[in-house]
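Good day; I would like, with your permission, to put a structural problem before you. A protein sequence and the structure tokens that stand for its backbone fold form the material at issue. The record follows directly beneath this note:
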Amino acid sequence: MNKGGRRHTLVVVPCGKAKIWDQQPEAGPTPAKDAYVGTPFKVNRQYAERVGDSWVVLSAKYGLLRPDDPVDGPYDVTFNRRGSGPIESETIREQALALGLDGYERVVGLGGAEDRRVLKEAFAGLGPRLEFPFGGTPLGEALRATKLATEQRATVARHLRRQRDRETH
């Protein structure tokens, strides 16, 4: 937290098509952080855990999920196919308010064009500054850039820890 009680950075990770029930149909309800098993989700999750003060999953079926929120599957709902029955932006906005996500200074959105559209609609006028650092970048390039940003963040964090450790010893 910083001055005024606002938390600094929330990262929103899109859920992804590959889900645990594809590999383990008997899995049952699973925490959101473990329910999505595709490479894009894993790369984005690592970024979120390094860069954000906290993170949530954006699910086209359930909306905003905290990492430990249970997800019941299987399901195949996407923002890219309106006919699949995705959750409405207004409902996501209500979830964001209920979860206190309007208390962040910055919301970093990952994912494709439809994820960005939904987040822009849901967070419009709520207060946090929306950022899409890899927005408009083709998926392969976006994943490479996300991995690189995660690695650079880890390197800086290790350097700062070593420096802090030297200063305290």
